[in-house]
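Why does residue order matter? Because the sequence determines the fold. Keep that principle in mind as you read this record.
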Amino acid sequence: MESVYDDKIVLITGAGAGIGRALAIAYAEQGALPVLVDKNEAGLEQTGELLQEAGYDSLSFVIDMSKPDEVAGLFRDIETILSRLDIVINNAGFGIWKSPYDLSIDEWDDVVNTNLRGTFVCSREAAKLMRTSGGGAIVNISSTRATMSEPNSEAYAASKGGILSLTHAMAVSLGPDRITVNAICPGWIETGDYDKLRPEDHTQHPSQRVGKPADIARACLYLTDPNNDFVTGTHITIDGGMTRKMIYEE
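Structure:
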């Protein structure tokens, strides 16, 4: 069956594991060519091997998203090799869980420069390619931590909150070039051994289960479908209902 993703080129950052790997597989299954980006070379190779074993092509680039020069070089390579780009999923990111009393400025910068600045630079460079070929779609992976917090998550929360603001700002700026920009806020998405989760891990969610990377992949497929180009500048929370649950101590 023909897919809207046949022959589309989709760049996925943080593709070396977890959600990024699931995204690469999901888009490949829909007929797209995944361009895999990660600073973890071993993880990137493993994702590429999984795709190859399943009969899918891909391209891989070892890039540190906190380094703008490397990101700019990535897009020069993409333009030379592929000449166009249709979709970007800004998934790369990490957190440092440390008291604000102890968090160093260098640690703050590492998180913010990777998660937030990396998302901006990647989106800007991608848009330069997209506008020359009729537009495209950008999806930024934020977090429920953009709107709610646990202790000692300041750098991560700030970066993910910034991604939400960046999303609606770029949606307005890039709209005339027919580029949609949206975000996804995942909650607990288990990327390890799902079978080792406890019953209480699942039942604390109104959905009665912990999330899976495939839940995020399906949302990305929706947001990047060209038939859904009326959806832009917004975000979808995928957390099993947890951000809408009132929790009392008993």
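The CA atoms of residues 161 and 188 lie 17 Å apart.
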